[in-house]
Amino acid sequence: MKTWVYIDHFQGQAIPASWEAVGLGKTLGAVTALVFGSGVEALAKSACEYGADEVLLADDASLADFRAETYASTLSAAAAAGTPGLLLFPTTTRGRELAAMAAIDLKTGVLVDVTALEAKGEEIVVTRPVYAGKIMTKETCSTRPYVITLRGRAFAKPAPQAGKTGAVTRIEVRGEALTSVEGYARGESGVSLADANVIVSGGRGISNNPALTPPAGLDEKAAEIWKAQQGFAMVNELASVLGAAVGASRAAVDAGYIPYAHQVGQTGKVVSPNLYIACGISGAIQHQAGMRNSKVIVAVNKDAEAPIFKLARFGMVGDVWQIVPALTAAFKKKLGK
Ligand SMILES: Cc1cc2nc3c(=O)[nH]c(=O)nc-3n(C[C@H](O)[C@H](O)[C@H](O)COP(=O)(O)OP(=O)(O)OC[C@H]3O[C@@H](n4cnc5c(N)ncnc54)[C@H](O)[C@@H]3O)c2cc1C
Fold first, then answer.
1. Whether the CB of 201 sits within 6 Å of ligand 1
2. Domain 193-334 is classified in which CATH homologous superfamily?
3. Among 224, 215, 202, which Cα is nearest to 291's?
4. How remote is the CA of residue 290 from the centroid of ligand 1, in Å?
5. Which CATH number fits domain 3-170: 3.40.50.620, 2.60.120.620, 3.40.720.10, 1.10.10.10?
6. Rounded to the nearest whole angstrom, what is the distance from the C-alpha of residue 285 to the centroid of ligand 1?
7. Of 69, 143, 239, 309, most Cβ neighbours within 10 A?
8. Closest CA relative to residue 136, chosen from 114, 163, 103
C-alpha cells in the first residue's frame, strides 16, 4: 500500500503521534512523509530517522504558520499527482482539519480518531470509538485514497535510527491563505495531557476536607475554591512524584477549581496514558469518554458504588485526604525521591 504520512508539528517540533503514524505506515510498506512549514529541513531528517523512506518537503515562508487553505491545497495537489492509496494524519486539531479538507479535494471519505487498523491487500478496515467510547465500530471507505486520522498513543512510536536517511523531494506550495497569524502567546497552562504517560486527575471530591479551615473573611464560594486548591496541591504533589500531568473532571473545572486546559472527557481532552489515577471523580460517562482508553486506571473514591470502579483496574475505597498523601509517600519511597 502506497502510504503517505502527514508530519504534524508546531514550529518544527513534531507531535509524537506523527511518529506513531510513520510507525504504523511502515507496517504496511514504504512510507512517504509530508513535511510542510518554514525552515523544517531538520524535521524532514527526523522523519527519515523515524522510518520514512522518502519525504515530500514544502518549505516556504508562506507555510511558517499552519493555515488550512495553503496546507490542504499543497497536500491535495501532491496527492492528486502522486496517487497514494492511504493518507495518515495524527488526530490533532490541525490533522483533522487538514484531513477533512484534503478528503474533499480528493473526492474521498475520511475516517477519524482511529485506534486500530487492519489491512488486507489494498483493503483497510479501521476501529474507532463512538458514543463517547461506549462502542467501538469497524468502518471502511468505498473511495480512494483512504484518508485516516489516528488517535494519539493508540499505536506504538518507533525508535528513531540516528543517521538513517531518505530521498527528500521539494514540492510547490499551492493555494493562498485567507487569514494570517499575528503572533502566539502562551496559554493559561503548559499542560500536555494528550502526550502524558501518567495522569493524576482530581474531581469535585477533592474539595471537601472538613478538617481544613479556610482563611477568615472568605465567602462560601471562595472558601470552597480555597479548599479545592488545597486538594489540587495534594494531587499536584502526587503528580510531581510520578512525573505526571494533572487532569480534572468537568465538575472541578466548572466550579473554578482548575483551568479548562486540564479537563478530561467528552468536552475536554481525550487521553490514553499508561496510568490514569482518578481522585474524587465519580466516573460519569462523559468523563469516561476522555480516559477509558488509559492502560491502567486507578480510582480513589469514598463511594464503593461510584461508576469509576467499574472501569478501574485498581480501586481504593476511602477518603482522598488519607489515600492520596499515603500514595505520594509510598511512591516517593519506592522511587527514591
Ligand atoms: C454534554 C456534557 C458534557 C460533559 N463533558 C464532561 C467532560 O468532558 N469531562 C467530565 O469530567 N465531565 C463532563 N460532563 C459532566 C459529567 O456528567 C459529570 O457531571 C462530571 O464528570 C462529574 O465530575 P466529578 O466526578 O468530579 O463530580 P461528582 O460526580 O460530584 O463526583 C465526585 C465524586 O467524589 C467522591 N468523593 C467526594 N468526597 C470524597 C472524598 N473525600 N474522598 C474520596 N472521594 C470523594 C464522591 O463519592 C463522588 O463519586 C459533561 C456533562 C455533559 C452533560
1. no
2. TPP-binding domain (3.40.50.1220)
3. 202
4. 13
5. 3.40.50.620
6. 9
7. 239
8. 114
